[in-house]
Amino acid sequence: MYDFAYHKPTTVADAVKLLADPDAKAISGGHTLLPALKHRLNRPSALVDLTGIAELKGIRKQGNALVIGALARHVEVAESAEVKAAIPALAYMASHIGDVQVRNRGTIGGSVSNNDPAADYPAAVLGLGATIHTSSRKIAADDFFLGMFTTALEPGEILTAIEFPIPEKAGYAKMKNPASRYVMAGVFVAKTAGGVRVAVNGAGPCVFRQSEMERALAANWSADAVAGIRQSPEDLNSDIHGSAEYRAHLVTVMAKRAVLAAG
Ligand SMILES: Cc1cc2nc3c(=O)[nH]c(=O)nc-3n(C[C@H](O)[C@H](O)[C@H](O)COP(=O)(O)OP(=O)(O)OC[C@H]3O[C@@H](n4cnc5c(N)ncnc54)[C@H](O)[C@@H]3O)c2cc1C
């Protein structure tokens, strides 16, 4: 596990150069990568620690969007006055990720780059139609999440920030695994300038949009509008924590709660 070089660059440009080595790996909060190293699931030749890069930090309002730097830790998003004012559902989501230790170390950039099916942030990114900024381009949320632990990021590409459009309304609800707080099934709903968006996380191998619920909420923004919509269990996750059928049922329950939370 410990047989690797360690680098701590101070600019994105230097980090990109170091990550040109295909066996090097970026590290932010380390809350996913370090356990993976300990289990020998990953054996990088070098770790490129991003936490010394000032340009990846900070949360700022820019026009009608909130731009959150990749290194923003969950606790910073949860406690940010800007986030609470602009997108309270995002602050609420951040405040329910893992436990205090996880929230004090884990970063939004690490979480979204990792795209764990049971992670929280991908639902907000997709549900709000955010734009992912990287070291070389901007990627729309609809094009970013490609599958389980898979994103549109190319090898060596660094997620630098996420630009969240400020919605008219948004809400999030999740059924959490009581041990880890990872998502069993969660739903993020948003009424945005671009229309209504509904993103489901935890239930399937990758976060996805629930178009039937989007149409129902566009016609009638109320918990009743989604109460009768059944998510198909086909292709949903089934494991020791819950069957696909249970997760499908949870999607409707969480959607109702998310709409009520959004108000
Ligand atoms: C006990 C426990 C409980 C948890 N519970 C939850 C939960 O309830 N909900 C939830 O959403 N998450 C949960 N997590 C995960 C946690 O939220 C971390 O955010 C997550 O592990 C990734 O963030 P990180 O900063 O730690 O990334 P790291 O572990 O540093 O990196 C993760 C991956 O992303 C890559 N990476 C990191 N930063 C970047 C970047 N800027 N650009 C490109 N690639 C990058 C790394 O190379 C690595 O492959 C939990 C973790 C633990 C250990």
Order of helices and strands: EHEHEEEHHHHHHEEHEEEEEEEHHH
The amount of beta strand, in percent, is 25-35%
Spatial order of the strands forming the largest sheet: 4-5-10-6-7
Task: Evaluate the radius of gyration.
Answer: 18 Å
Span of the ends, CA to CA: 48 Å
Sheet bearing the most strands, described? 5 strands, antiparallel
Arithmetic mean pLDDT: 97
Share in helix = 25-40%
Number of helices in the DSSP assignment: 12
Bound molecules: flavin-adenine dinucleotide
The secondary-structure class comes to: alpha+beta
Low-confidence segments, given as residue ranges, are none
Care to count the β-strands? 14
Task: Write up what this structure looks like.
The chain is an alpha+beta fold. It is 34% helix and 25% strand. It has twelve helices and 14 strands. The chain has helices spanning 12-18, 33-38, 74-79, 81-86, 88-95, 100-105, 108-114, 121-127, 141-144, 211-219, 223-227, 244-262, and strands at 5-7, 24-27, 46-49, 59-62, 65-69, 131-134, 138-140, 145-147, 150-151, 159-165, 169-176, 183-192, 195-201, 208-209. The strands form four sheets. A five-stranded antiparallel sheet has the order 4-5-10-6-7. It has a four-stranded antiparallel sheet with strand order 11-12-13-14, with helices on both faces. The protein has a three-stranded parallel sheet with strand order 1-3-2, with no helix packed on it. It is globular and about 55 Å long. Residues 25-33, 50, 70, 97-98, 102, 106-107, 109-111, 113-114, 119-121, 153, 158-159, 180-182 line the site of flavin-adenine dinucleotide (FAD).
